[in-house]
Design a protein that fits this description.
Strand content: 15-25%
Distance between the termini: 17 Å
Structural class: alpha/beta
Oligomer: single chain
Number of strands: 18
Shape: globular
Number of helices: 17
CATH topology of the largest domain: Rossmann fold
CATH superfamily of the largest domain: Glycogen Phosphorylase B
Bound molecules: adenosine-5'-diphosphate, alpha-D-glucopyranose
Largest sheet: 9 strands, mixed
Number of domains: 2
Length: 482
């Protein structure tokens, strides 16, 4: 049995701020259990759902030396849907209402976590063949492993893969402070290792010291090796291109299942969607305080409200769309105040056409994916994106910008060949976005048969982990045989 440890700062169902949690919370269940024992290690945050906190069993404790600091670490354990989860406990680091705080706190918190993960392994009697790290918060795992733990035979044959879910967030902080926090040797804070543009960089460290690097779509793997997408690390990505893999995320087909989803007014499948979706649409319109109009083109958005997600294009085109088109928007999300406020403004001006819910709600997210006609995701950049796949699973047609994983997962509609699963535009431009929304609205309104074809293709295309879990297995195997 091959042993794999996934390390992450979040995973559903325990703690989630974004798609990283969906990925780490689902991939382990789809890896072949006869060949791989995949376990997951997370921080034990005070802000985790209480129902889960109450269920954790204490395993052991030890101390982590971080330079002059000596910090307590507890290990707890739980099982969820057949996967073993470990939790690293420290009430000082993992307190608060959010997994992430200020960067100067987070660099110490995740240095502690990364070292604690490695020190826990002999004590929990699990010696992984591969440690699968995710995002900058786990970047120091390969660094500690290959430097300070390097001499210990327990760790000698462990391989690492570092997955980049978002190149934008690198965990950068002052070199002197990071040296003080980590106690890592001064000679690794150089431009070929941990240093980048005068700062210590956790993501860079992870990428330099890991045996392989992966990211969450083939297109994004290419994007990050270019000056425009590389966020300052394009050179490193190009240098490591033989060890850089782009593996498209999957979504959890059990959690996102239109035939069983308990949040829906009426469940449906690809045969019944055309009848039953209308009921869900009407229910969503009622719930969001919009008039129940079957003919209005209902567009959903569920997103972190940041620049990454293309909200400035939406802000620019919203007035024109609302004043000229038979559309309705339902929006769910939190983030930058200027975007939250923008939706509030349009909602007060066009209460029959737009309704926003500023907040986080799993239930509402599912209802939007299931009930809208279309789903808008005009991202500036998108490593993978899960929302467009969740929408397609429910026959809700994505309208996306052709970037990263959006390009790899949405096949653009071709009216001549009657192919495609969604609509897309190329340039990051508000008018291009609006024109493609108008085009989609025209197909929805005037070419029902073609629209229904889009819906059934979107619903029957495979966005599960079936293919991608095999690719991770191949990557693990390649590392193990190295
Ligand atoms: P990212 O990780 O960049 O935010 P993804 O599309 O990969 O983007 O994943 C976003 C995940 O977070 C999806 O599961 C989506 O449903 C969820 N999500 C985003 N905003 C909200 C919200 N306000 N309420 C509930 N779920 C949300
Ligand atoms: C990041 C990316 C998103 C991706 C998710 C899971 O949050 O922004 O595109 O889907 O990670 O990999």
């Amino acid at each position: 049995m091959k042993q794999i440890l996934m390390v992450s700062s979040e995973a559903v169902p325990y703690i989630k701020t974004g798609g990283l949690a969906d990925v780490v919370g689902s991939l382990p269940r789809y890896v072949n259990k006869d060949e791989y024992d995949v376990r997951v290690m997370l921080p034990k945050y005070a802000c985790m759902d209480e129902r889960f906190l109450a269920d954790l069993q204490f395993v052991c404790h030890f101390y982590v030396d971080l330079n002059w600091r000596r910090q307590y670490a507890g290990v707890f354990k739980s099982e969820y849907q057949g996967v073993t989860y470990y939790f690293v406990d420290n009430e000082y680091y993992f307190a608060g209402n959010n997994p992430y705080n200020n960067i100067y706190e987070d660099v110490e918190k995740f240095a502690f976590f990364s070292k604690a993960v490695l020190l826990a392994l002999p004590l929990i009697d699990f010696c992984p063949d591969v440690i699968h790290c995710n995002d900058w918060q786990t970047g120091l795992v390969p660094v500690f492993l290959k430097t300070v733990m390097g001499q210990d035979p327990f760790y000698a044959s462990i391989k690492t893969v570092f997955t980049i879910h978002n190149m934008k967030f690198q965990g950068r902080w002052m070199v002197k402070e990071v040296m003080d926090i980590t106690g890592l040797p001064a000679e690794i804070f150089t431009a070929d290792k941990l240093e980048s543009y005068g700062e210590a960089n956790y993501l860079k460290g992870g990428c330099v010291y890991a045996d392989a690097i992966s990211t969450v779509s083939p297109s994004y793997a290419m994007d990050i090796a270019t000056p425009e997408g590389g966020e300052g690390l394009a050179g490193l990505m190009s240098a490591r291109k033989n060890d850089l893999y782009g593996i498209l995320n999957g979504i959890d087909y059990d959690d996102f299942n239109p035939e069983t989803d308990p949040t829906m007014t009426r469940n449906f499948n690809v045969i019944t969607v055309s009848v039953e979706k209308k009921e869900n649409k009407a229910a969503l319109q009622r719930m969001m305080g919009l008039p129940e109009k079957e003919d209005a083109f209902l567009i959903g958005m569920v997103s972190r409200m940041t620049d990454q997600k293309g909200f400035d294009l939406v802000a620019y085109a919203m007035e024109e769309m609302l004043s000229t088109m038979n559309v309705q928007f339902v929006v769910l999300g939190t983030g930058e105040y200027r975007f939250e406020e923008m939706f509030g403004y349009f909602q007060s001006k066009y209460p029959d056409k737009i309704s926003s819910y500023i907040g986080y709600s799993e239930e509402k997210a599912h209802q939007i994916y299931a009930s809208c006609d279309a789903f808008l995701m005009p991202s500036l950049f998108e490593p993978c994106g899960l929302s467009q796949m969740m929408s397609m699973r429910y026959g809700t047609i994505p309208i996306v910008r052709e970037t990263g994983g959006l390009k790899d997962s949405v096949d653009a509609y071709n009216e001549y060949e009657n192919t495609g699963t969604g609509f897309s535009f190329k340039e990051y431009n508000a008018h291009d976005m609006m024109h493609v929304i108008q085009y989609a609205n025209d197909v929805f309104t005037n070419h029902k048969e073609q629209w229904n074809g889009l819906v059934s293709r979107a619903m029957t295309t495979d966005y599960s982990w079936n293919t991608s879990a095999r690719k991770y297995e191949n990557l693990y195997d390649r590392l193990i045989s190295k």
